[in-house]
């Protein structure tokens, strides 16, 4: 997911590794997001009522694990993940008390990004995304599934499908509780790609995701952030299960070459605000 710049034009060999660069930037995410999703999903399902309590993320189309994946991802949650799980259970419980009593239980600094905005929102059953539209960017693109690559990182669309976006199929589908994650290239050797203008989104812009059940999940942008790839905040990007949300991720920042490509990730944070028939 590189981005062409006038100041530094990468060589053709380096640009051909666009998929590897995004996978490298997602290495930490791939290791932690699955665990965080599972423990957070269990915590939320125990304390939050949805329109379909039995709904779960769709199962992946590939085998659940492999020896390589087990070596990379580990066989047990470990103390840090158990600590995160315990903290999330406590936070979800306190949020539940707030909803019932109206009394703020969490410090504002801690709960920023966890407490849902003061808007009602629907909750949808599981259904894979098939299309993405952002009117303010004049963007309309197909969406296909991506999972975990053979090296244990998050897979990305092939360079030949650079005008398509990829939904991370190990997480929630758009409209379920938790962050649905869609990744895409910013450019290729042939020019701008699907997320070339992603950094231009602003708070309040809308993103429409068409699903295979012919419903359209409408998300509203909360913020657009840029993070150093070596310091991507996994909890902030993947750990909020307080409501249905969306993360759009591409590359940005300056060109550094090698397996990293561009130095940063551009991440769009958006929340589900409504749903309609497609």
From TrEMBL:
<feature type="transmembrane region" description="Helical">
    <location>
        <begin position="79"/>
        <end position="97"/>
    </location>
</feature>
<dbReference type="GO" id="GO:0016787">
    <property type="term" value="F:hydrolase activity"/>
</dbReference>
<keyword id="KW-0812">Transmembrane</keyword>
<dbReference type="InterPro" id="IPR042001">
    <property type="entry name" value="Sortase_F"/>
</dbReference>
<dbReference type="InterPro" id="IPR023365">
    <property type="entry name" value="Sortase_dom-sf"/>
</dbReference>
<keyword id="KW-0472">Membrane</keyword>
<feature type="region of interest" description="Disordered">
    <location>
        <begin position="1"/>
        <end position="24"/>
    </location>
</feature>
<feature type="region of interest" description="Disordered">
    <location>
        <begin position="41"/>
        <end position="73"/>
    </location>
</feature>
<protein>
    <submittedName>
        <fullName>Sortase family protein</fullName>
    </submittedName>
</protein>
<keyword id="KW-0378">Hydrolase</keyword>
<dbReference type="InterPro" id="IPR005754">
    <property type="entry name" value="Sortase"/>
</dbReference>
<dbReference type="Pfam" id="PF04203">
    <property type="entry name" value="Sortase"/>
</dbReference>
<keyword id="KW-1133">Transmembrane helix</keyword>
